[in-house]
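Researcher: Please predict.
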Amino acid sequence: MGRHRMVLVWSVIAALCSAAMIALPGSETVPYHIAWAAFALCFGLEQWSPRSTWVGLGVFTFVTGAILVYRVMTNVLEWQETTEIPLMLLLMALMIWHVRRRQQALSDLTVNAARERADSTMRELLTLRTSHEMRSPLMISRGYLEMLMDRTPPGEDLADLQVVDEELERLTRVCERLVRSMRVGSDLEVTEVELDSVLHQTAERWSAVAQRNWKVESSALTLHCSSERLRACLDTLIENALRYTAHDDDTVLLYARPMRDAIALGVADSGRGFTTEMLRSAAGQDLLGGVLDGVRDDLSQTGLGLSLVRDVATRRGGWVQLGVSAWGGADVAMILPVRPAVPALPVARPTTVIAPEAAEQMSFWRSGVRREPDTGTGARSA
């Protein structure tokens, strides 16, 4: 009954207009056009069945056409008025055709969207399950491998075991990156996050994994964001920094620095750093480009790390800034507005690049002895 409500409404209007055409000789065209306008309105507000549509049109066209023909035969109207009978029916038929096409397109779009959501859910579930199932065997394998390495004397056999250990470690990082990507893409709780606490906790957790000179530079700054996404981005930047800092005395700095209406949150290191060619290649590339081109080197992996971080920053209305650290290494920061107007979709924005010569003049690089950045062929990769 609810589905045919507009059909009943138009039927009442059509009956009243037909009665008005009979009661008002010489003014038939006014209620006649009112009934057709009401049909267009009611048909657009509700999806009519084909039977209701064409039966209603046929009955109304026959009744009102008979009235108009009778008025013409009694010399109340001119014969030209009867041309409106087929013309109005044709006009409504065209309107019905276009509405049906739009309704079918929306129906197809809804079905496709539901199918894509289901596929996306299955992919995420498969990724999480795969990563979870791989973690336990990897941990057990590395545990036994460490025991074998402890029992094996230095030599060729130990070197082979170390290669196996390195490959298992890479596979473990791949699993962690998959889980991290799922967290970044999902809807997570947004709260007021104390950046100083997050940075210290992250540095403490990573210091147990990798021996580096860990530093934290922060103050009493808070950011309205998702702590899960924030930690995922920091983990990605730290993972990149560890690949390019091979020695225990290399420095890895986590920092949060206030800017005008924004906060610079990033990781700096004393490693190889960005070459001039890499900075020039990254300049002007936007989010829609996916992985940054021209940044591959011997330590590169998938190249998706910086793209993941840039996606999070851009969704919040910010961007990623590349520069040179106080030690000549890399400095990668997310510039996040304090109170962003979050766009519904990622907005393409080029990656900001701070050239080495400009970086020397930046006041917020305050500590450490600066050395000239490497300008060789090895470039930092995301």
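Model: The longest helix spans residues 84-151.
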